[in-house]
Amino acid sequence: xxxxxxxxxxxxxxxxxxxxxxxxxxxxxxxxxxxxxxxxxxxxxxxxxxxxxxxxxxxxxxxxxxxxxxxxxxxxxxxxxxx
Length: 83
Known about the structure:
Layout: E1 7-11, E2 20-27, E3 30-34, E4 45-48, E5 52-58, H1 67-82
């Protein structure tokens, strides 16, 4: 699976298991992830691609610039999935 900047993923392993995160960068098998809450945009988490499950949702670049807009986008995604 190829990951792209802005794609939402669900963590499958680690302390952040089941959390929704956004891909900020892809470096080979490693992803840089943030959710704007526990992992800020300025301090993303480095995680192996095999430890996340991809979703079909890709956020626009403007939503990845600040923690608040990223939190709002993830909350909207989670609210849409609950229905």
